[in-house]
Specification:
The chain is of the alpha+beta class. The chain has seven helices and four strands, in the order αααβααββαβα. A hairpin with a 2-residue loop joins strand 2 and strand 3. The longest helix is centred in the C-terminal third of the chain and has 21 residues. It is globular, with a radius of gyration of 17 Å.
């Protein structure tokens, strides 16, 4: 998906390519930023006819990490979690830093027999396992909460309502996680 986005932009001048990359990507994480996300959604709305997942992902306990260990450690956590997300979704997805400690993941499957919801949930389980492994010796708890919606992109779709729906589901999941016994 990401490679198609870059091809769609068709910029040939190396200096403009560099400026375009800076305008569309988050400096800390190298993921798409909000502007890059908007361009990407325009591209898939004009070309895609299959269902995709839009997931809002939030890093749990990051503000506590920043308070206890400093913002450099918080930035380290954000960078490493974004790498895990990028590596987990690079073949059939795109990761966008939505703000602070929130990301948006766009995901689709090339397998027509795939049950998209189940496939996505399996990937997110593996992401959570990788994060747990990467942070097990850090001395602070870090996790992920997420919510998602499945839709077919097309011109004129209200992407903000899909983001809002996914965001509400993410917060419900976060509250559920907080209420679970340890």
């Amino acid at each position: 998906m990401y490679e198609n986005f870059l091809k769609h932009c068709k910029i040939k001048n190396p200096n403009i390519d560099r400026l375009f990359w800076r305008a569309t990507h988050d400096y800390l994480t190298c993921t798409l930023n909000r502007y890059g996300f908007e361009l990407f959604m325009e591209m898939i709305a004009s070309k895609n006819e299959k269902e995709i997942v839009l997931s809002v992902v939030d890093i749990d306990n990051l503000s506590n990490t920043n308070d206890a260990f400093g913002h450099c450690e918080g930035d380290w956590a954000i960078k490493n979690i974004s790498k895990i997300l990028i590596n987990s979704f690079e073949r059939n997805g795109v990761v966008c830093r939505w703000g602070g400690d929130e990301f948006i993941v766009i995901y689709s499957s090339n397998n027509p027999k795939c049950i998209l919801k189940n496939h996505f949930l399996g990937k997110m389980d593996r992401v959570r396992e990788k994060i747990s492994e990467a942070f097990k010796n850090k001395g602070y708890p870090i996790g992920l909460s997420y919510g998602f919606s499945i839709f077919t992109p097309k011109k004129g779709i209200d992407i903000n309502s899909i983001i809002d729906d996914s965001d509400k589901k993410m917060y419900s999941y976060k509250m559920f996680q907080k209420g679970k016994p340890k």
